[in-house]
Amino acid sequence: MAELLRSAFVLYRRNVRLVLTVTVPIVVIVTLLTAIGLGSLDARLTPAPPARDFWIDALASELVTAPLITAILARWVFLTRQGERVSATDLVASALEAFPAVLLVIVAWLAASVVGMVTLIVPGIYVFVSWYFVVQAVVIDGDRGFAPVTRSAALVRGHWWQSATAGVAFLLVSYVPQLVLEYAFTPLARSANSYAVVVVVLALARVVTLPFVAIGASLYYLHLRDGAATAARR
Predict the structure, then answer these.
(1) Does 26 have pLDDT greater than 90?
(2) Total domain count, the chain
(3) What is the reported pTM?
């Protein structure tokens, strides 16, 4: 686990310019459009923003921002491991081309996870982990339709606890920058009495954390993929 975290961090740090080039515009555009639509930029800071605003922002992030960033960086990680170089423009274009297929499986993954958690909780958690790598299956292996779901579940099978532990580790590590940013900017938001500061903090947190999680998940997917290929040859 420590090696996976280290590998993701090193890959991120050594290629930070490329990573930020392909991810910052996505985060800024989606976050800004969502904030404008919700009227957050000129809203006063309130202790408890409307739940509707929270869910709309979360859906925009989970259905657009995170999948696009993951699609871009999953392909980049795969090509980098093969020793190939690719431009930022090509990475973004390929991700946008694959986005309809990505969105389909992301919706299926989230819907199945939510239904499972609402009904019996445990099935939802199991599905959430088992289907977590559907985006990688789309952009790395070229699967389409619901085949990425089958692909992700097959690779995770037998490695569910390891996969869940890796996911928790990356989420915990990525949560640290978010806490630091919130701590640093909360006094400013309060003094300005402006929710726009919160929007800026959310954007900064996503710029820092989403690429790290995407790179780590893609490295882990390739690890599972290589293991499955080795086992098949035996």
Answers:
(1) yes
(2) 1
(3) 0.90
pLDDT, mean of residues 123-137 = 92
Contact yes or no for 5/216 (Cβ under 8 A): yes
Summarize the confidence of residues 137-162 as an average pLDDT: 94
DSSP for 62-102? IIIIHHHHHHHHHHHHHHHHTT----HHHHHHHHHHHHHHH
Phi, psi values for residue 25, rounded to 5° = -60, -40
Range of the domain at 147: 2-229
pLDDT value at residue 234: 67
pLDDT at residue 119, as a whole number? 80
Any domain includes 137: yes
Of 214, 209, 229, 26, the C-alpha closest to 133 is 214
Contact of 69 with 217, CB cutoff 8 Å: no
